[in-house]
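Need tokens for this chain, all 205 residues.
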Amino acid sequence: MIQVTRYEHPEFTSNTYLIQIDDHEDAWLIDAGFVDEVLQIPGIKVQGVFLTHDHYDHIYGLNNLIIRFPEITIYGSKYTLDCIKDARKNLSFYRQMPVEVLHLNVHVLQDGDLIFLHHTEQILCMETPGHNPGCMSYIIDKLLFTGDSFIPGHPVITKLKGGNKELNAISLKKIEGLIVQGMHIYPGHKEIYSNPELHQLKPLE
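Here are the structure tokens for all 205 residues:
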């Protein structure tokens, strides 16, 4: 059984998702914008974090996570794993709260990669650029984690550096093709959505 817990950053409103399987102590994260409560869970062993993209509000807690779990694997696109090292690229510099993550144990993801979680469940990794060149979305069974590539009922922001309206339109079509009956959507901001209507896919901003 997959259990997902959402943690929202009190200032940035970005979501961090904790994934646990069958009450096992091993766990994984989707993004790491807010990890304070995760670090306080007794006995938990975070094995990896899957980044949806590099913006500071989704990586803010990475260094604290690495201090607690030095063997943790950071998964993401090549673009994302490059930008988390540079405060200007991940935009944290401009918030006067620079975040630079230097970690050797990283795993570059390609579109269509499958990664096993605890030898039972697989996570499907998909490139969904548009909001950001390095955006990735993830599927575990009928759980779809979209980061800022798709927030039901809200337009995708493409005005930030690296945003691309044309790529965003392609990514939304791709995401639309993944939505099936009974699916739960876990976006980078806002609440979790169940069975979203396809008309909620907003093209671009």
